[in-house]
Input
Amino acid sequence: MAAAELVGSNVYVKSHQSEDNHITGDSPEVLTTIYEEPINLVILQRSLPDEVTSYCQKLVDNNPNFNLRSVLNNQTPTQSLTSLLPNLVGQSAFIEDLALLLDMYSCLFDLGEVGLRLQVLDRAMCPRFHTDKLGCRLVSTYYGQGTEWLGNCGVDRSKLGAGNMGLSDDESGLYPHAASIQQASKGDVVLLKGDGWHGNDGLGAVHRSPALTSGEKRVVVTMDFA
Output
């Protein structure tokens, strides 16, 4: 299904699964469920083409400190990305995939521009579980470990931020046991509804960056309302 058809579609993908505050599925239609009131996290499960994965490996090898921040017009993403991304083998396949995500995100929320950040990471940028204060962020990990998150039934929100009393996430009582921590896979498209979404104050999706071992890398893209 084309991204432009997402918002107008009332068809729910048959393979989607709903539990607690989150929904997962393997077709783009699942992204529209972010508009459902109890839902604050949606995952579109997908696999990446080999060319895209190969480009990300080359990006890690050749540009280990790559950090791109830009505001892109949804009408000309391919041209903009071609000028912003390193010219490595597989660039066109990577740009095609990234432009698809931009198209889906902008159509879903009726955006003329999208705030994009693409980074090669060697550490957890947000190591503690938290919620975002914005409307809804898209996160997708192109290389390495995916985002970790907690369902509403597996989190004590009073332990977020200063409520942890200086204790680590696994010591504070934020979640009952390690099995409560869930993780997106490489290639998955994750929508994280934040506290800034209308009527969602204090109910944003609880998530964090995964801890990385020495030498481990990630390539992560985030998209926000511009």
User: Anything to note?
Assistant: Residues 167 and 173 are 9 Å apart (CA to CA). The helical segments are 50-62, 77-84, 91-109.
